[in-house]
Amino acid sequence: MKHPTTLLGAVLLLAMCAAPHAYAASVKVDRGNIIMIDDAGSARPLTAGGLDSDPVLSPDHLSIVFVRRTPHRMVNTASGAESADEAWVMHIDGTAQRRLVEGAGAEDPKRTLAAFSSPIFSPDGQTVYFMSVAWVTSSSIHSVELSSGKERFVTDGNSLEIVPAGKYRGDLVVNKHKYWLASGSYDWYWLVSPTGKEIAPIGPGDESIEEFRSLFVK
């Protein structure tokens, strides 16, 4: 006959294995720190320092990408001096934090990396896209592969959305500032491939985006 203590230990072990793991239901920012809200509604701070923003969950809810401000380090851009900034990724429990991209100045606006915003995962969770300050009239969109850390310029744009499903899954919806041949300028949403190729215009306003979603995001 097994010892009662041994039996109790086995029961506890089985209970622990059967218990559901905490699941990241959402993430938010509180005074510059990333907070994870699990499926039970409990809040847990994941970063400290008060410099973090723009947290986004990966499609599998196991990782978080976010922006870390660098007020002590500035970059000269076409719009003036901006915070160099960094893009980071971590597990939902706050471990395995690593920097993906570090801001840097460059003569070519396509290579300027500063004042990051709108980070977002690709549908397969293998790539992160984000926006950077670039030209006076437009920001730039860059991508970074999580496995290799390779960063590249994708396209110009003043907004960023990833198509999550359907025919155009993984493509980008970007608001672009363009110029008419005669004179003047306009701002339209475009469907863009992950390599930066313009696939097709979507339209000028939010109504166009909603129509695109209703037709193609299924």
TrEMBL record:
The keyword Signal applies. This is WD40 repeat protein. The keyword Signal applies. Residues 1-24 form the signal peptide. It holds the Pfam family PD40. It comes from the Bacteria. It comes from Paraburkholderia acidicola. Keywords: Signal.
